[in-house]
Amino acid sequence: MSSAGSRPPGFRMRISPSLTPDRLLELKERALELRCDVIESLTLAGSGHPGGSLSSADIVSTLFFDVLKLDPEDPRMGDRDRFILAKGHAAPILYAALAGRGFFPREELASLRKLGSRLQGHPDMLKTPGVEASTGSLGQGLSIAVGMALAGKMDGAEWGVYALLGDGELQEGQVWEAAMAASHYGLDNLVAFVDNNGLQIDGRIVDVMSPEPLADKWRAFGWKVFEVDGHDIAEIHSTLIEAQESPSPAVIIARTIKGKGVCFMEGEASWHGNAPSEDQCRLALEELRGGGNRD
Length: 295
Prior knowledge:
The protein is of the alpha/beta class. The chain has one domain (about 5-290): Thiamin diphosphate (ThDP)-binding fold, Pyr/PP domains (Rossmann fold), CATH 3.40.50. It has helices at about 20-45, 50-55, 55-65, 90-100, 140-155, 175-185, 205-210, 215-220, 235-245, 280-290, and strands spanning about 80-85, 160-165, 190-195, 200, 205, 225-230, 250-255. A five-stranded parallel sheet has the order 1-2-3-7-6, with helices on both faces. Helix 1 crosses helix 4 (about 90-100), helix 1 runs antiparallel to helix 10 and helix 3 (about 55-65) packs parallel to helix 4 (about 90-100). The longest helix is centred in the first third of the chain and has 25 residues, at about 20-45. The chain is globular, with a radius of gyration of 18 Å. About 50% of the residues are buried.
């Protein structure tokens, strides 16, 4: 898309032009609820990925409760927006958001990773309502999002595509092939978030295989780049408004803290894929709900 007055028909981001204090508070409370749901469901499962789920909660809250056009009564509604969780191991945060939007009962979150459950360790589009793509093999999610955005562009569709990637995932070559294709085809209906928490399962991303400088790389591939505090919902919201004016695909690099909200998880790579114990769950929920101590 070009400037506002010369845009062709098609995608237009469905986002309120400003956040009232009450609306901002609601989105913050939603993010808190998502974090609590993640902790509880992972504790019951005894396995899963808390770190990257917690770091992306504010991004997911903004998208699912302020931006995305979705209909829980008709999950495959034609003009819905599409959300792709490229870092599929963060499925707990997606499931919490889908439950919050009413795609299935919140009580079903307790079945995470259980035999026969619709909520497996990675998203399954064939079983779980609201899941757009089965993801888990890192690096493939952006390619899926590019294909959807290209289809929407060709059809002049009003819906948009949003992808959430991990920063460690950017070590996958397929990500950059997809980035090049998105720019080549002028996919201005595509917005990608990078959850830039700086950590992956083996430690710091810059030590494992540094993808830095992130912003310069995305610009070199023809994307409009924004950098935000990934825990500042007001900044995420205002940046999305800017992103909708971009004539090229847009990427929002969100600086986040792995394990955000739980002091003993924050900034610890060891919490990439370990579930809390019952005692740790209790401490985490006390902290998230205001009963803990962040000394």
